[in-house]
Design brief:
The structure is a single chain. The chain is of the alpha+beta class and 322 residues long. It is 26% helix and 34% strand. The strands form four sheets. It has a six-stranded mixed β-sheet, sandwiched between helices. The protein has a four-stranded antiparallel β-sheet with strand order 2-1-4-5, covered by helices on one side. A hairpin with a 2-residue loop joins strand 1 and strand 2. Helix 2 packs across helix 3 and helix 2 runs parallel beside helix 4. It starts with a strand and ends in a 7-residue tail after the last strand. The structure holds adenosine-5'-triphosphate and magnesium ion.
């Protein structure tokens, strides 16, 4: 099973929200669409789901053009940030509704729902209504409902962004087990780079309705093709230093080292993160962020350097990697 976007564009009025989207997601692959708010991620998913139509380009599922295939015939499992559960129905009722619309014998339906309640570990809560569930439990109902549709493709639009950090950590392995490890292609929208790095086989960094770079998490981390990608992947973001020759040197905070022969800096701010600390340094190149192990206090004068092989170089005018 594959999903393929060929030159997809969408405009609202005069504004092209999606410029030219080319993307192929293979069998069992998870691609994260990562980008800032408003860059067109949800719009792209809605087009794939058939909830909206592109103004140019084509969408193919399993090689078949979807131009004239309505949403309900595309067999797509979609999960939203807002869960989109029916508040007056119980968990069981919510799961049943999707199946009932597709028809089939009552007994089959019931069997599948009961099995699914075990898979997502919601059996005890089957008679509760959404308002009586936690955010994580609601999201599991939404995942179960998408799974029951037996989709050819999964589209997930920030499915965990309403959950707190701890619950997200808990739900990530479940999401992997239930959806990402399956044979269907998955497109996973998020603006959280940690989530994208953790879950996706490949990440497409979107900016202003285009894909700025696509690659494995490691490729994007090691060789970002622009300063935008460089600062979007990795946290805290890469330091960028303007040089005199119209170039920019990029160094990740985790690649700065204490070095007696290095550059003079003063510690302007220090955040303790347990295993490491994050420093904000004043240097001849402006402020730099640094991650280090400890032994540094606020106001200290320190010397830092970085290994030359960890240095990235970009063109200062267009931001492209040199
Ligand atoms: N129906 C519409 N009519 C007009 N403009 C729209 C419509 N839908 C979306 N837009 C605009 O398209 C742009 C992209 O919206 P979209 O919802 O795809 O962004 P997003 O990347 O999902 O952002 P977020 O991370 O905040 O969810 C926004 O500027 C939005 O205002
Ligand atoms: Mg969105």
């Amino acid at each position: 099973m594959t999903v393929e976007l060929q030159g997809i564009g969408r405009r609202f009025g005069e504004r092209w929200i999606l410029q030219q989207l080319d993307l192929k997601v293979g069998q069992g692959e998870c691609v994260a669409l990562l980008g800032a708010s408003g860059c067109g991620k949800s719009t792209a998913l809605r087009l794939i789901a058939g909830l909206d139509q592109p103004d140019r380009g084509h969408l193919l599922i399993e090689g078949e053009p979807m131009d004239r295939v309505p949403a309900r015939q595309r067999r797509i499992g979609m999960v939203f940030q807002s869960y989109a559960l029916f508040p007056h129905l119980t968990v069981r009722g919510n799961l049943d509704l999707g199946l009932r619309l597709r028809g089939g014998p009552v007994q089959d339906r019931q069997q599948r729902i009961e099995a699914m309640l075990d898979v997502v570990q919601l059996r005890e809560l089957a008679e509760q209504r959404p308002a009586q569930l936690s955010g994580g439990q609601r999201q599991r109902v939404a995942l179960a409902r998408a799974l029951l549709r037996d989709p050819r493709v999964f589209l997930l639009d920030e499915p965990m962004s309403n959950l707190d950090a701890q619950l997200r950590d808990e739900l990530r392995p479940e999401l992997k087990r239930l959806i990402l490890d399956g044979p269907q292609p998955v497109i996973y929208v998020t603006h959280d780079q940690v989530e994208a790095m953790a879950l996706a086989d490949r990440i497409a960094v979107m900016r202003h309705g285009r894909i700025e770079q696509i690659g494995t998490p490691q490729e994007l981390y090691d060789t970002p093709s622009t300063t935008y990608v460089a600062q979007f992947i990795g946290r805290p973001p890469m330091n960028l230093i303007n040089m005199d020759d119209n170039s920019v040197i990029g160094v990740r905070p985790e690649h700065l080292n204490l070095d007696d022969a290095g550059m003079d800096c003063r510690v302007l701010n220090r955040e303790w993160h347990g295993a490491s600390q994050q420093l904000l340094l004043d240097s001849q190149h402006g402020n730099l962020r640094m991650i280090c192990d400890g032994g540094v206090s606020l106001g200290d004068s320190i010397r830092v350097s970085w290994p030359s092989q960890r240095e990235h170089r970009f063109n200062a005018s267009n931001g492209r990697r040199q």
